[in-house]
Amino acid sequence: ISTNNYSNNMHTSFSIVIPVYNEEKNIDILLNEINQIFIDHKKLEIIVVNDFSNDQTLKILNNYSLNIKLKIINNSKNFGQSYSIREGVKKSKYNLIATLDGDGQNDPLDLIKLIKIYNLNNLKFISGIRTKRKDTYIKIYSSKIANSVRNYFLNDDCKDTGCGIKLFDKISFLNLPYFNGMHRFYPALFKAYGFKCDFVEVNHRKRNYGISKYGTFGRLFKSLFDLIRVIYIIKKKNNA
Questions:
Q1: Backbone CA torsion sign across 175, 109, 82, 193
Q2: Per-residue pLDDT for the chain (240 aa), expressed as one digit of tens each?
Q3: Contact in structure between 191 and 237 (CB atoms under 8 Å)
Q4: Whole-structure pTM over 0.85, yes or no?
Q5: Sheet harboring 14-20: ordered strands across?
Q6: Alpha helices, H only, 79-214
Q7: Interatomic CA distance for residues 173 and 95, integer angstroms
């Protein structure tokens, strides 16, 4: 797909929501990329949710200048990824939402492919699948185990629920039950509520600066608790 042809001829309006926590060396690189890819796109906004960073992330965002409209949401404390995404979605201008991780490992160019598939297939949710991950072995294999366990119990058809690049309908999303940690279960929740979903292979890149802000094993018990919660939500929905 030609980036220039896409930017000039595609009229889909959408908001990109990016949650960030201590990404002072990565966020400006990512914003520059998005701006370059979609420079001629007239119906696009970027919403960066600063999750109480204690580095220079907020200062960099406040001083940043884009051709594309940039909104900054500054959390009063560190609420986490699920809360930050939801706040960004709630304050978005457009009904089609795209999400990207703030570390730059997601390739914003993949949004072109996702939007095309989303529109052609009348979807409500589409997510990337990282087939060639540029992470540590321990992170990759722990993620594979977590995805296998989750898919066994939830049957959500998603091989990589942790991929940050996603596209979904705002109204449908806000109708899902909210809980802290729900971002790991978007596919299961959208599917349970009857929304049409799809998954597409996407590019994955090495982190340029810093380290992942989310622990590999520290979230294990939290994820298991959330899994039980989602099983209950789906069971309740099916019995309604």
A1: positive
A2: 445 445 444 679 999 999 999 999 999 999 999 999 999 898 999 999 999 999 999 999 999 988 889 999 999 999 999 999 999 999 999 999 999 999 999 999 999 999 999 999 999 999 999 988 766 666 666 777 777 888 889 999 999 998 999 999 999 999 999 999 999 999 999 999 999 999 999 999 988 888 776 544 456 677 889 999 999 999 999 997
A3: no
A4: yes
A5: 69-74, 44-50, 14-20, 96-99, 166-169, 125-130, 197-202
A6: 81-90, 110-120, 137-154, 170-174, 186-192
A7: 10
CA distances from 109 to 29, 34, 118, 165 (A): 14, 8, 15, 11
The three-state secondary structure class of 73 is: strand
Q: For residue 214, which of 153, 139, 131 has the smallest C-alpha distance?
A: 139
Rg (CA), the chain: 17
In the block, which residue shows the tokens 């629920």? 161
